[in-house]
Fold each of these.
Amino acid sequence: MNNYLSYEELTKDIMANRKFQKIALESHHGITRMEHSQRVARNVYKVCIKLGLDYVSATRAALVHDFFTNEEFICFKFLGCGVIHPEIALANANQEFELNEIQKNMIESHMFPLNTTLPRYKESWVLTGVDKAVALYEYMANKFSYKRVTKKFGYACSLFAIMVYYLLTKEIR
Ligand SMILES: [Fe+2]
Ligand SMILES: [Fe+2]
């Protein structure tokens, strides 16, 4: 992976952002939203490099895909979690960082099929697949302890989800 930017390099400005750092205090799947976001972003980074996709855009968008605080979310909660939080995350990410069209679509559609925005890029399919696999891993790890549900299980789920999405969507772009 020598010719690629490192994960740390391409995410350091996001990690240093004051508003973004607030998600380290928010709970999410029994851990913090920061831990979840980093796990998703690291997997998206690896998968996108493997598939030859735009790993820079994808990794940065993956890191901010759940960029919201519970405080911002509370006024919307009756409208449905899956539908509303990608929009809040997109608004926050757009305010703090420069986003391209791939990144906007990735954030907006990551809860597909719960929300109505379709993933229009392969990078969007990668994020929605990895996010689901990681959420399943975190849910199970939280329920049965991280010792029994190893990281390998999470990565295996991610790769499986990506393979399925990739086969289904290889004509997209
Ligand atoms: Fe989300
Ligand atoms: Fe997520």
Amino acid sequence: MKQRYVVGLAIVIAIGLLTQVPFGLMKPQEKQDPFTSILNMLQSINSKLDTIIELLTPEEPEGSAPVVQSVEVQGDPVVGGLVYLFITVHDEDAGQALDINTKFIQLPPLSSASLIPSIGLTPAFIPDYPGDYGLRVTVTDETGQYDNYELTITIPEPSPP
Ligand SMILES: [Ca+2]
């Protein structure tokens, strides 16, 4: 009877040890878990917020704005003549693609003149009425920085034949 009791007790202790040891090992972790996991969660939220803020903050344009250096009027500035511009542009930042766009900001009354092409360094048009043709040349670089240049071409009244 005594032996049986001892064996039984030994089994109980063994089972107790086998189950308690893993629990014992896990207990310190369990105690840390809520704090550690909240800390980890906050750190992860913080880094995610940093990423979101980075994504939402508009990037500072890099480099400098391009410049319209000069616009020369070429061709035949009379009614029915072909007028074209010779534009020179410059950008300090090497290798940036530049978009050059020209449009009318003023036309003589009744005029339906149009710029063909309106993009590039040599836009052209045919004046259909005498008067003032106001033009705006805009150069834009890859970062969206731009420069405007405005000029007025005055087309004289056609001289009687
Ligand atoms: Ca630039």
Amino acid sequence: MPIEPGFFRIPADPNAPPRLLGSRCRSCQEVFYPRRRICARCLTRDTEDLELSTRGSLYTYTYVHFPLFNSRRADHGGYGVGQVDLPEGPRVQAVLSGGPGDFRVGMEMVIELETLRENEAGQDVVVYRFRPAKATQATSAASAKVEPS
Ligand SMILES: [Zn+2]
């Protein structure tokens, strides 16, 4: 189950990516994430629900060298955070899946689910995150550090 309702939908197909739940203004066509009842651009109260694309372009990112709060991945020692531009327009901030050398501005990212923990009912509590759509060849080169002589 989602950590908080209303932000994304988990498809019935376990191999399918989650879908972010956005809104589109019927008047000016601006798209928002998360959902809005009133358009922030033209203030019309006429928005419709829209499921956003599962892929986008990495606008910017950083790598936090500290374990992710509340995560099972505490042993990883850090995590990426980035902003992903979706084709519909919204720029979504999310945790990134991968190591510090795995990201490049402008690369294609795909959304996926991460299980944070189990709740009292034994259900997995999940969040969404983005990972690079393709493994980069540059990763191995970037991790092969050149020591100063
Ligand atoms: Zn509008």
Amino acid sequence: MNWIKHTILAVVLLLGTNAFALNPNNENSNNDTEIQDKKEVSFIDICLSETSKNPYEILDKLMSQPSCRMHGPEHHVLVGAALLTAYKNAGGEINLKEALATMVERGGEVPGGACGKWGVCGAAVSAGIFMSIITDNSPFATQAWALSNQMTAQALADISKYGGPRCCKRDSFLAVLSAIDFVRLHLGIEMESPKNTTCSRSEQNQQCIGKQCPFNEINQSNNNRNMKSFGSKPWMVPQPVLIIGTYNEKQEANAMNAAWGGTWDAGEIMISMGSHATTENLKLNNGEFTVAFATSETMVASDFVGIVSAKNDPKKMEKTGWTVEKAPNINAPLFKEFPMVMECRIKEKIGEKGNSGYYLIAEVVNVLCDERYLNEQGNPDIEKMNIITFDPCNMKYVECRKCFL
Ligand SMILES: Cc1cc2nc3c(=O)[nH]c(=O)nc-3n(C[C@H](O)[C@H](O)[C@H](O)COP(=O)(O)O)c2cc1C
């Protein structure tokens, strides 16, 4: 593990910044002939003289140095170095020289093959190190700690989507693309995105995943896209997983699952209601009900209340294990396991014919959110809630956090 750290540190700190001997033994190289023909330039020098705000292009330049191999732990430094350079050029306030030295030190500690051995790709870690440096993170920090770990997580999610075998080029470029969006979203600094991301190194990679790679030529143009038809389907995505809470005539709580719902107007929601025990309950209590948002933690029971009716199973609610409490502003139950809940009252029923159901329009009387799920501004932080959505194409639940990453 330490060979690369010592090599880089020795080169950078003792000999100055005139070399980029990340691969002294030229191990694992797939472009030996190319190396002999090219002149090495220090990657620190490249970064310090660079004016581009585009970390993808900077990384490409750094990777084109003769000693940079097709695969190898040097990428654990180069990803962060490219990001630091672009970040600085885009207006980020950092001392680039010092930041690069820290990057070399920290990135050099991440061993080759960490993706396989630890399940943590070093390119993603490099993006996390970049975030730690620019936010001055430490194990005791609060916001910076969260951001740095989220940065690594996002890069890892983006990288792992394509499966293995690893490609240090693909994974490094993906980490950089993750960071461009992440920095814009969380720090408001606009690094530039690349216009062309076609891979020029696939022939040097014996394990290239070809058409599966997002940088493969075939994926660069919409002309190669084939669209499959599915006919008429009400596939609005993502769909919510709403848990509707009502009381029956005995003030006993019931819950059902509804995915066909959404915003109707300011302060109003709509739900497509079929004929259920809940529909009967909605004739009572002034049409009052709660709507909670299902989470990963409540997913199994949320599905259960969507497939079992209180008409058929008097112990339905008992089986969910949920803690029932009366909502403060309406006569409907709320279930304490859910982080956020809306207190609602029916305003209008559209298309009601007999008992076949209708489209329910309801005013939102109040929204309640568990204080543990608020952000720094005091608003509900849905990223903290592990909300799930319903995937109507595959009839399954999807965790929203996978969409956030
Ligand atoms: C994922 C999912 C989504 C559903 N969406 C709706 C919906 O939008 N509208 C509806 O009337 N029923 C929907 N249902 C069906 C009801 O939740 C289900 O019939 C439930 O058992 C009714 O319970 P109840 O009879 O105790 O009120 C959905 C069920 C599932 C599993």
